[in-house]
Amino acid sequence: MPLLEVSNMTHFFGGLRAVHAYNLEIEPGQIRGLIGPNGAGKTTIFNLITGIYDPTEGEILLEGKTIKGREPNKIASRGLGRTFQTLRLWRHMSVIDHIKLGRYSKLDYGLPGAFFSTPRRLREEEKTTKIAMDLLELVGLPETADQLVTNLPYGAQRRVELARALATEPKILFLDEPTAGMNPEELIDMMKIIREVHQELDLAIFLIEHRMKVVMDLCELIQTLDFGEVIAEGTPDDIRNDPKVIDAYLGKEVSV
Amino acid sequence: MPKKIISVGKKIWATMTGWLKKFWSNFRDVPLISWLVAFSVTVALEIFIGQALARMVGLSKPPALFGVALVLDNPAKFLSAIIYMILVYGLPVGVIAYLTKGVGNQIAEWLLQFPLLLTSVVHLLLIYGVMHYWTSISDYRLLVARLAMISIIVTLSLNVVNGYMGEFSCSHPGFMALGAYVSSIFTVLLFVTDNRFGDALLPAFLGPFMFPVSLVLGGFVSAAGALLVAIPSFRTRGDYLAIISLAFMFIVKSLFENLEVVGGARGISNQPDYANLWTIFVWTVLAIWIINNFVRSTMGKALNAVRDGELAASAMTVNTQKTKMVAFLFAAFWAGIGGGLFAHVIRYINPGTFGIRKLAEVLAMVYFGGLNSVTGSIVGAVGFSLISEALRPLDIFKWIFIPIMLILIMIYRPTGLIAFREFDVAQLFQPKGKKDEEGVDHAAA
Ligand SMILES: Nc1ncnc2c1ncn2[C@@H]1O[C@H](COP(=O)(O)OP(=O)(O)OP(=O)(O)O)[C@@H](O)[C@H]1O
Ligand SMILES: [Mg+2]
Fold it and tell me: What is the pLDDT of residue A251?
């Protein structure tokens, strides 16, 4: 049984068909890529699977159980973590608090613990802090824990977003253009971190990328999307040589 | 020519602030406990020689609230008031705080080995003692102190929604009204013989023990009322929710206006005098403790996440509906408690008490003190209450002066005086030394 199975998913924004008859199967531990020109519908697919939009048609199964139409927080706590194309950090919050919040659904102390500082709450908060620090270590930012997230450089902010998503203990991690806007140095760091995360935490990754080098290096299988439809699917080599892909997409990018 | 004046003015300003900073640097390492000791001495001083001293400098009695009202009433007394304030407050507080800082720091250091609870109790007892004796001199002071503490509860609870969760809610007077009415009905019905609810149903000596029950009941009813704002908040944000919450306030007000059983527009009076200084003090401490616990927990930080990015919050497993629900109901509960205490201080309420003027006051306290900050709300509530009382002789001009002050704050410090600060009780009681200065800078950065 695949970890995530999307079948025949279609979505309309009013009259605009943003996604059409989309299918996807992700096995545990896989790294998959989704590419396509601007406005092809990649982010929309992420938003549909993670519950931000409810697909007009189709079915989405996570570990064999439907998640279609569920609230985003329920879907997330069932093991689907994500980052966003444009940073969505909470601007008044410290780095460590960001990551701790990723563990919201794992907290058990409830309202009594929140209102009174019960021993149980202290214990759980301490444990959460420790997990958060470990994740910060993993993305290479342990010394920034108490800083406001807005004081960090852009590349570091992206890593905080990644660590925050990891705190939800995802079985699949959705990364929406994780290297967007990064300089070459930050890009190399990010790729390294993605590999490490994949190895250490043993999770599946589904990523959208515009930079061919990143997708081709990281992914086992790649889908190419154009106008909401998958026009090609296969290994990096297949994709590189697919005339439809070159026509729709790669042709416009000189350096592959 | 004007340029010259401005530059000279700037220079004078710079030297003056320079002096002030230098002067203040002597007090940087004074721990809270030394301040409290200094204030106790001052208060004792005022009790024993205040009257005589006031006569000596040409005042009929010790000024109730730092002499502002006195001076506004009769500007000629300005010098007398200043001299009195310096002799009774400024000088002794400064000198004693300075002299005891060594011992104070040792005591604070020594207290570190005990659980925080014990240290807190010691400090709270001192704070209460100072307040108790400070207010023993005049009934007016006592009233102002009691109302100021209630303001802390109400302001803090509004800050939970408007500051921590970033919704502009206007329903707080409505919540206060619910709490005030429910607890008033409870105590007047059960413990007071009057012509509205008839004979007292229970012996009066039970009253003070049942008072907390009446308050909590009021809090719960108020929280139930908050559902009317919380449920729309799932789908609406910003302006629309502000309007819904404003509508809620008016609904509550006209509900009580039209309910003849509870006095209609005339309201309820004869509440028993249960809300004395220490009762209010205990409730205020409870409110600060619980609200501070909440906003510092990861569950409470979810409020900030909802404010600064709801989509990201839900993608990080935060249950945003539950978060909003809890915030609104929790805030309303405390507003209800505040309302109940208020009703038993003033001992007369009517629907008009909980109208737009009250709303303006609470909002002013929250935004004056600072969003997303417990310290800010305490400072805002106390500061605003005192200013507002001190300016009472100005009468209608007060309501010109206060809005102008607010506008200035909004221009120069849009989030309030002390915004986005965590209130760490342990840090508050700590000994203050050279190493702590670093800590202070950290917090400011
Ligand atoms: N909430 C929305 N309402 C209406 N139309 C939308 C909405 N979100 C996206 N669209 C439209 O759907 C199409 C697909 O958008 P989407 O953001 O998924 O593209 P994308 O492949 O992620 O592009 P990019 O590479 O620029 O990120 C676009 O035409 C976009 O304008
Ligand atoms: Mg996109």
Answer: 57
CATH number of A4-79+170-250: 3.40.50.300
Contacting residues of A for B308, CB less than 8 Å apart: 89-93
Mutate to test the pocket of ligand 1, among A9, A17, A34, A42 (most ligand atoms within 8 A of CB): A42
Which residue stretches of B26-90 are H helix?
32-56, 68-73, 78-85
User: Is B294–A90 a contact, with Cβ atoms under 8 angstroms apart?
Assistant: no
B397 located within any domain: yes
Number of domains chain B contains: 2
**Does some domain include residue B347?**
yes
CA-CA distance, B173 to B356, in Å (whole number)? Answer: 8
Q: Is A36 a pocket residue for ligand 1 (Cβ < 6 Å)?
A: yes
Q: Sign of torsion, CA B166 B334 B295 B361?
A: positive
Beta-carbon contacts of residue B373 (< 8 Å; ≥ 6 apart): B159, B163, B416, B418, B419, B420, B421, B423
Residues of chain A under the 70 pLDDT cut = 249-256
Ligand closest to Cα of A84 equals 2
Question: What is the spatial distance between Cα A18 and Cα A56, in angstroms, rounded to a whole number?
Answer: 11
Residue B434: per-residue pLDDT = 53
Residues around ion ligand 2, judged by CB within 5 A, are A 43, 85
CA distance B122 to chain A (A): 19
Interfacial B residues in 295-324 facing A (CB < 8 Å):
297-302, 304-305, 307-309, 311-320
- Looking at the structure, do residues B291 and B413 belong to the same domain, yes or no? yes
| pLDDT over threshold 80, residue B298 | yes
Window 391-420 of B, Cβ < 8 Å to A: 420
Task: Check whether residue B213 and residue B313 sit in a common domain.
Answer: yes
The model's pLDDT over B46-78, given as tens digits with 9 standing for 90+, comes to 888 888 888 888 777 788 777 777 777 777 778
Residue B25 shares a structural domain with residue B148: no
B324 found inside a domain: yes
Q: Whose CA is nearest to atom 28 of ligand 1?
A: A39
Nearest residue (CA) to ligand 1, atom 30 = A39
Q: Strand pairing partners for B169?
A: none
Domain extent listing, chain A: 4-79+170-250, 90-154
pLDDT digits (tens, 9 = 90+) for B350-379: 999 998 889 988 999 999 999 999 999 999
Whether B383 maps to a domain, the answer reads yes
Residues A197-208: tens digit of each pLDDT = 999 998 999 999
Tell me the pTM: 0.91
Query: Do the chains contact at B315 and A117, CB–CB below 8 Å?
Result: no
Same domain (yes/no): B54, B182: no
B266-282 pLDDT per residue, tens: 889 888 989 999 999 99
Helical H segments across A35-140, by residue range: 42-49, 72-77, 95-101, 110-115, 119-138
Residue nearest to atom 26 of ligand 1 (CA): A38
Q: Do A76 and B311 touch (CB under 8 A)?
A: no
Q: B83 and B188 share a domain? A: no
**pLDDT of B113-145, one tens digit each?**
888 888 889 899 999 999 999 998 888 899 999
> Residue B438 has what pLDDT?
45
Chain A environment of B302 (Cβ under 8 Å)? 101, 104
pLDDT (mean) for B8-23? 87
Mean pLDDT score, B337-345: 96
Q: Is the CB of A41 under 6 A from ligand 1?
A: yes
Question: Is A90 strand, coil or helix?
Answer: coil
Q: How far apart are CA A123 and CA A138, in angstroms?
A: 23
Domain at B411, CATH number: 1.10.3470
Does residue B436 have a pLDDT over 50?
Answer: no
Spatial contact of A126 and A185, defined as CB atoms under 8 Å apart: no
Of A72, A101, A116, the CB nearest to B290: A116
> Which of A52, A88, A102 is closest, CB to CB, to B317?
A102
What is d(CA A55, CA A6) in angstroms, rounded to the nearest whole number?
Answer: 11
pLDDT value of position B46: 87
* Residue B334 vs residue A242, higher pLDDT: B334
Do B106 and B219 fall within a single domain? no
One domain, residues B108 and B215: no
> Whole domain around residue B47: which residue ranges?
2-112
| Pairing mode of beta strands A221-226, A31-35 | parallel
Q: Kindly provide the ipTM of the predicted complex, given to two decimals.
A: 0.92
CB contact under 8 A, B312 and A90: yes
Q: Does residue B196 sit in the same domain as residue B78?
A: no
